[in-house]
Write a structure and sequence with these properties.
The complex is a heterodimer of chains A (246) and B (138).
Chain A: E1 4-11, E2 21-28, H1 35-46, E3 65-68, E4 71-74, E5 88-91, E6 98-100, E7 103-104, H2 107-115, H3 137-147, H4 154-157, H5 160-164, H6 171-181, H7 189-197, H8 210-214, H9 221-240
Parallel strand pairs in A: 1-5
Antiparallel strand pairs in A: 1-2, 3-4, 3-5, 6-7
Chain B: E1 2-8, E2 11-17, H1 28-59, H2 61-71, H3 74-101, E3 105-106, E4 109-110, H4 113-136
Antiparallel strand pairs in B: 1-2, 3-4
The chains are: A alpha+beta (246), B alpha+beta (138).
The complex binds iron/sulfur cluster and FE2/S2 (inorganic) cluster.
C-alpha cells in the first residue's frame, strides 16, 4: 500500500479564471479513507480555499456527489483504495453549471422536481376523523424503491440526454413522479401526465440506462421511465377508442 | 469546450461545459448504447430485403431466380453477415432490458427479472422453431 496518493482536483475560481483547471494534492493514503476524507484533509491541512459540498458522510444526504475518475459517485462512499494508483481525478458533476470548484448549481433540478408535483394529490381529502390512509405491504412495495431517492443528481450527471437536451425533466424527477403515481393513496396521475408525457418528459429518454447504473440507492430511474412509457402509450391508445378516456 | 463564464443575477459567474459531439466515445457504455440505436438501420435493411423477396415473387419465377443470384454475390453475403450480427445484438440487448420496462406482478409480488427475460427468450425460441418447422417441412 502506498504512503500517499495524489488527487487531481478540479478548481474553478470565477474571479480569477475563465475555465476550470486541475490542481494536484498529495494526501496520506489510508485504507479506510473515502475520497471525501481526502478532500477534507486537503481543506483542513493543505488548501482551505477548496470548495465542495457534503454533510452526512454516510450516503444519506446526497450532497457529496462528484465525478471520480470520470464516473459520478457519492464521494463519501468512494474508497481511495478502489481508485489506486493515483492521481485520482475529482471533478464536479457534469451538465450542471459550476459555481466554484466542486460545487454545482442544482436549481434546474429543483424547478423540474416541483413541476411533477412530488406529493400526494387527492381529489378530495378524507376528514381527519376518518383516520389515516392505510396501505398493505404490497401497496408500499409498489413505490418504495422510487422513494429511496436522495436527490444526489448522479443520474443527471450520467445522462447524456440531459447534457444534450437540458430541458429534459430527467431521471430522478420522473422516478419521483412515479413514486407518487404508484402510491395507492395518490390520485394525481392524470395531473402529472401532461408534463411527464410532454415534449420534455419520458419520450426524450432513449434508454441509455446509465442513470440506473450510477444510482447509489437502487432507485432504478431508467426502469421508472420505461414503465411510464408503457403507461403513457396505453393511455394514448385508450384515447383513440370511442368510449376511451379523454 | 467552454461557453466561458457569465454573470447571472444570484451567482457571481457560472461555468458551463458544453457537450462534445464525441460524447458517445467517452465510455464504452455510451458507445454500446449508440451501437444499439444503430442496429435499427440493419433491422430496417432486413425488412427491405424481405419486401424485395415478395416483390420478386410477384414478378414471377425468373425475377425471383435473378434475385437469388444477386443475393448470392459476395457483397450481399457480407452485408447479410454484418446485418445478422447487428440484429442479434439488437434482440439480445433489448431482451435483457425488458424487465426494466415491464414490471410483472403476480398476486402483488414482483416477478424476478430473470422470469421476464427468460420468457422473452423462450418465446423467441418457440417462434424460431415454428418458422423452422414450416420452412423445413415437405
Ligand atoms: S435517482 Fe438515484 S442517482 Fe438519481 S438523484 Fe435519486 S438517488 Fe441520486
Ligand atoms: S455526504 Fe451525505 S451522501 Fe455523501
Amino acid at each position: 500500500m502506498p504512503a500517499t496518493v495524489a488527487l487531481a482536483v478540479a478548481r474553478y475560481r470565477p474571479e480569477e479564471e475563465p475555465a476550470p483547471t486541475l490542481q494536484t494534492y498529495e494526501v496520506p493514503f489510508r485504507e479506510d479513507w473515502v475520497v471525501l476524507d481526502a478532500l477534507n484533509y486537503i481543506k483542513d491541512r493543505l488548501d482551505g480555499s477548496l470548495s465542495f459540498r457534503w454533510s452526512c458522510r454516510m450516503g444519506v444526504c446526497g450532497s457529496c456527489g462528484m465525478k471520480v475518475n470520470g464516473t459520478p459517485v457519492l464521494t463519501c462512499a468512494a474508497f481511495l483504495s478502489e481508485h489506486l494508483p493515483g492521481p485520482i481525478r475529482v471533478e464536479p458533476l457534469d451538465y450542471f453549471p459550476v459555481v466554484r470548484d466542486l460545487v454545482v448549481d442544482l436549481s434546474d433540478f429543483m424547478r423540474k422536481l416541483k413541476k411533477v408535483k412530488p406529493w400526494i394529490l387527492r381529489e378530495e381529502e378524507k376528514p381527519l376523523a376518518e383516520g389515516e390512509y392505510r396501505q398493505t405491504p404490497d401497496q408500499l412495495d409498489a413505490y418504495k424503491q422510487f422513494s429511496m431517492c436522495i436527490n444526489c443528481m448522479l443520474c443527471y450527471s450520467a445522462c447524456p440526454i440531459y447534457g444534450l437536451e437540458p430541458s429534459f425533466i430527467g431521471p430522478a424527477a420522473i422516478a419521483l413522479a412515479q413514486r407518487y403515481n404508484m402510491d395507492s393513496r395518490d390520485q394525481g396521475a392524470r395531473e402529472r401526465l401532461e408534463i411527464l408525457s410532454g415534449y420534455d418528459g419520458i419520450w426524450q429518454c432513449t434508454f441509455v440506462g446509465e442513470c440506473t447504473k450510477v444510482c447509489p440507492k437502487n432507485v432504478d430511474p431508467a426502469g421508472a421511465i420505461q414503465q411510464y412509457k408503457l403507461t403513457s402509450a396505453v393511455h394514448w391508445l385508450k384515447t383513440l377508442l370511442p368510449w376511451g378516456a379523454r | 469546450m467552454s461557453l466561458g463564464a457569465h454573470y447571472t443575477p444570484y451567482h457571481p459567474k457560472w461555468y458551463r461545459r458544453r457537450v462534445s459531439v464525441w460524447w458517445w466515445l467517452q465510455t464504452w457504455s455510451y458507445t454500446r448504447f449508440v451501437l444499439r440505436e444503430l442496429t435499427s438501420v440493419f433491422v430496417a435493411l432486413f425488412a427491405v430485403v424481405l419486401l424485395w423477396h415478395i416483390w420478386a415473387l410477384e414478378l414471377g419465377p425468373e425475377a425471383y431466380a435473378r434475385l437469388l443470384v444477386r443475393l448470392g454475390t459476395p457483397l450481399f453475403v457480407v452485408l447479410h453477415g454484418v446485418a445478422f450480427v447487428f440484429v442479434l445484438f439488437h434482440s439480445i440487448t433489448w431482451f435483457n432490458l425488458a424487465p426494466k420496462a415491464m414490471v410483472v406482478r403476480l398476486r402483488g409480488k414482483r416477478m424476478p427479472d430473470w422470469v421476464v427475460v427468460g420468457s422473452n427468450y423462450a418465446a423467441w425460441l418457440v417462434l424460431s422453431l415454428a418458422v423452422a418447422v414450416i420452412l423445413l417441412r415437405r
